[in-house]
Amino acid sequence: MTRIYNFSAGPAMLPEEVLKQAAGEMLDWHGSGMSVMEMSHRGKEFISIYEEAERDFRELLNVPANYHILFLQGGGLGENAIVPLNLLGRKEQPATVDFIQTGSWSTKSLNEAKKYGNVNVAASSKDAKFTAIPARDTWKLSKDAAYVHICTNETIDGVEFQYVPDVAADTNGAPLVADMSSHILSRPVDVSKYGVIFGGAQKNIGPAGVTIVVVRDDLVGKALPICPSAFDWKLVAENQSMYNTPPTYGIYIAGLVFQWLKRQGGVAEMERRALAKSEMLYGYLDSTGFYRNTIARDCRSRMNVPFFLNDESLNESFLAGAKERGMVQLKGHKSVGGMRASIYNAMPIEGVQALIDYMKEFEKKHG
To answer: According to the model, what pLDDT value does residue 2 have?
Structure first.
């Protein structure tokens, strides 16, 4: 069987090396006589898997000791509710959350937060069709917000923060909360500049079903009374992410990915590869009039590259030809149309080159 190049935005491709290891351990993990899927989450076998995964993640992202690392369920969308449920208790009710609206995911986040408190859209690029990040000097932050929320990489729209916004001076120290679902572990992060970082696993980490939350110690224990116990960060932290049964197999695969990342050279090497892959693809898109990318150059995503054919009547033909050549999931999100190439850590540079070669061939045929 020949492996395809899967450009899906998530669930996304995993490193082949990881899949082979998981296949080899499927029936018998390290002589235990059972699969990881069959293990008790409280047994010593799984506890060792969990502890290694947590330790490797902390090392890869250089997470300071005063931050908890939590493995939860619910995905990024679920965390859009779990975050305000855990942080709005920091302030007298009704509390306010500041949002920087930069695309579809930050919009989903702010709409969810409205159910639990007040929302101030401090800045928005909606009028620009989410093709840029609002300039920092245009942000109208509240003086007493419970937190400030950003999505550092918009999976659907293809914009990415290339800097960490300093908001504390404008907000009386309100913590910065970042949804990093689609670019976590693809670039170094100064975790100390954030109060909370979260991300769904199904893009750069592992299979769907796991959400990782990195939360500073002082922000734990501030949940609203209506927060479900299974999502209360204090209870989850106190029980080593096992207050309820965690997604054990997903954590195991995530742990294998963390080990793979370390063997590759860690996050610094992933950033080098991400730059090489994205610069190749954007370089070609900028060189042709047959395709176009509409994102401002200073905030183009390295992970999710949306593009359009100028003649959109050719879209289906383009996708069919790509599939014939072993490249799938290039169709853009239904809300924006066009195409999208998601080039996460597991996508080799050969996959990006194959896509560019095909795009050139298609342009030559139809241009």
So the answer is: 83
Is 129 a catalytic site residue?
no
Q: Tell me: the pLDDT tens digits for 69-89?
A: 999 998 888 899 999 999 999
d(C-alpha 52, C-alpha 49), whole Å? 5
3-state SS class at 305 = strand
**22-31, pLDDT tens digit by residue?**
999 999 999 9
Spatial separation of the C-alpha atoms in residues 132 and 298, rounded to whole Å: 8
Query: Which regions in the chain score pLDDT beneath 50?
Result: none
Choice among 179, 222, 232, 260 that is catalytic: 179
For helices 16-24 and 248-264, the axis angle rounded to 10 degrees is 130
Identity (one letter) of the amino acid at 39? M
Q: How far is CA 132 from the centre of its chain?
A: 18
- Residue positions forming the annotated binding site: 42, 105, 155, 179, 202, 244-245
Q: Which of 298, 304, 303, 344 is nearest to 162 (CA)?
A: 298
Active site residue 105: yes
What backbone phi and psi angles, to 5 degrees, belong to 352? -65, -40
Which residues are annotated binding-site positions for pyridoxal 5'-phosphate?
A: 105, 155, 179, 202, 244-245
Helix 248-264, helix 266-287: angle, nearest 10: 80
Q: Is 203 a catalytic residue?
A: yes
Boundaries of every domain in the chain: 17-263, 266-366
Which amino acid makes up residue 352?
V
User: Does residue 68 contact residue 198 with C-beta atoms inside 8 Å?
Assistant: no
Fold exhibited by the domain 266-366: Aspartate Aminotransferase, domain 1 (3.90.1150)
Class of the CATH-defined domain 17-263: alpha beta
pTM, two decimal places:
0.96
- Note the residue count of the chain: 367
The Cα 147–Cα 122 span in angstroms is 12
Residues β-bridged to residue 177? 149, 196
Instruction: Provide the pLDDT for residue 172.
Output: 81
Which residue is catalytic, options 56, 98, 105, 233?
105
- Spot the catalytic one: 29, 98, 157, 203: 203
